[in-house]
Amino acid sequence: MHIQFGSTLLFLILSLSSMAQTKFKPEDTEFYSPKPPVVTLKNQVPSDAIVLFDGTDLDQWVSRNNPEQAATWTVENNILTVKPKTGDIQTKQTFEDFQLHVEWKSPEIVKGEGQGRGNSGIFLQGRYEVQVLDNDDNPTYVNGQAGSIYKQRPPLVEVRATEDKWHRYDIIYKAPRFNKDGMLISKGSVTILHNGILIQNNTQIEGTTEYIGLPKMEAHGAGPIILQDHNNPVSFRNIWVRPL
């Protein structure tokens, strides 16, 4: 009796489900507005992107130490290169959620080892560092290698440079949210593709990426994108951002 009752109940459920579906027409579950905006590509840059560096100048950047001062890194042959000991540079504009594309290259002359070799960084909202480091046969702590959320999360895999020696980061970032009293509502998260390979998959950011000590979670709003001067002449090109 139990088996028969179960079979009968299943039949009734399937029948009711089928009857419910027959009440609908295809157009009942179709909608035509609002339409997504059209985005095209020109030279591999989305038409709705803000170009932060196209190889010509540093008009979109200022000194991190003195935002009233123009950025002084070297621009040559369509490439931006860290000018050691001049300090970090940051965008004039500030951002919250965004898609960021950055291409970077280790110095032509390899010097040092570990964290002293081809070291730079990309700071999201000026607080959360995605590590830039010469990865090739250069052992270091895994949460400090290229593609890591510095001192927090190592990359899922280690990606080496392409034949042209350039690395490409595509970063999709969701900023943390705070209420009007400064209390944390949700932590930030980041997804990163390194040369097209997924290395951070919706990774939660625990707070500031401290060199010493634990992450700090401080209430904040929109912030700049920062490129780090770590005394190594790391190069960058083709930098653009799409606010989301």
UniProtKB/TrEMBL annotation:
Q: Please give the organism.
A: Sphingobacterium micropteri
Keyword match Signal: yes
Span of the secretion signal? 1-20
Which UniProt keywords are present, listed alphabetically? Signal
* InterPro entries xref list: AL/BT2_dom
Q: Does the keyword Signal apply?
A: yes
Q: Which residues form the 3-keto-alpha-glucoside-1,2-lyase/3-keto-2-hydroxy-glucal hydratase domain?
A: 49-242
Name the record gives this protein: DUF1080 domain-containing protein
